[in-house]
Design brief:
single chain; four-stranded mixed beta sheet; 5 helices; 6 strands; 40% helix
Length: 154
């Protein structure tokens, strides 16, 4: 699925509550803009049996007490499977479109960022996308959406 197809799938799955599909359409450029900074259209994340995403808490060795909550996203299902195996039988890799991962990111309270591992076999270097960056860009598009004049239906 290319990025436009991913966005269309998000809109089609949105609740038909009179506003969510329109809001998704409005923030779609933000999701696409961030997704274009990454190298792959799909990534694997680790999901628990209850379908929650596995969040890793990282500690800062230079600043004890300072932590960051991240989700890892792998470009290779093999890498994600190896990480899942290290976590025991309670985690499984799930392949998701990148725009869906970014959209879900804003709903996860307490999450600081997602680290995307772009190169299969290399978990030393990743591209970190901070939640704040995604939220700020989405807010720009939401403000434009909210300030737009209502459609002329006459």
């Amino acid at each position: 699925m290319d990025l436009d197809q991913q966005i269309q799938a998000l809109i089609e799955k949105a609740p038909r509550d009179g506003s969510t599909p329109q809001i998704l359409q409005a923030i779609a450029p933000a999701l696409v803009l961030i997704a274009q900074q990454l190298q792959h259209l799909e990534y694997s994340i680790l999901q628990a049996v209850d379908q929650s995403w596995a969040i890793v808490v990282l500690s800062n060795l230079k600043e004890p007490g300072r932590e960051k909550r991240v989700i890892y996203a792998w470009s290779s299902l093999k890498d994600a499977s190896q990480a899942a195996a290290a976590g025991g039988d309670r985690l499984r890799p799930v392949l998701l479109p990148v725009t869906h991962i970014l959209f879900q990111m804003i709903a996860l309270e307490g999450l600081d960022s997602i680290v995307f591992f772009e190169s299969p076999g290399n978990q030393e270097v990743g591209t970190e996308i901070p939640r704040e960056q995604v939220q700020n860009l989405i807010n720009v598009y939401l403000q434009q959406y909210r300030s737009a004049p209502p459609p002329d239906i006459a």
